[in-house]
Predict the structure.
Amino acid sequence: MPIGGIGVVPFSFPFLVYFYLPIDTWTLNAHPGLNVDVKHALSDSFIIQIIDPLQIDGAGYPVSGRLRILSPKLGTISIVFRDSQNMDFKLNSGNEVPVVWSSLMNLLSSDDTPDWQKGAAFACFLISCLITETDSVLDTIFLIEQNEDTIISEGRVTFEGDEFPDAPPSGISKKGSSHLSFTDMSGDSKAGPGDDFTWTYYNMWDASSGMLSIGAVYLVNYLRNVEVTNGVGNITSIGFPSSDGGGVVYDYVTRHKISSESPHAIEYTITFNGGFTVVFEK
């Protein structure tokens, strides 16, 4: 869905995320701030704070929790998530404005939307992007476990991107690729705990999501704790924690949202720079 004029959004989000495997629910925990520098979208920069932890359902929607946006220009904006589709926006001590998730893009693109509501809608969009990025880390962990032999023998696993059925956007190749490589930091000649991994994207287009990726993501200090009971090993925690400089680090990774219909065009672009730590726990 087009988002008018969003342009480029650099991120920096150093907070902790937990995934509870049995109930398929995400928790984004509170942190002093998520610093966001918004270019071309809004004439303001602001800080997003998670005041009450955000519970995220399996579909990727916040079902509870509270955000606060500190804007030098607009004031203090509060967002309270009531369920997976409904939330309330409030500016300073004003009245709450009910909003549904499906209306966020319309709020962003409408000239009639007050700037503070656009800021709130944009913050929700950024949280949605963060949830997607965190979800991709879990997918990466599965790929590491499934392709360990190939990663060890060849040093990386290569994935081909989807091919544009006709002409791609200007300057973009018709078919890209991505590499998942590893550095044996543990020195045990295995792709496992203590090692570093890197995603390198070369015009990698995923037709199902419409996203085309360029750049590198570093996954540092892989954690995998296993509890053995009656001879059976069960993973109790897995991810890239904050200890020993670990985490998920973006080096100006660009994600282009590409229209699905011809002529293919870039609807909006997000650039990630910075990182977060993530641990999935059972």
About this structure: The chain has a mean pLDDT of 82. The longest helix spans residues 115-146.
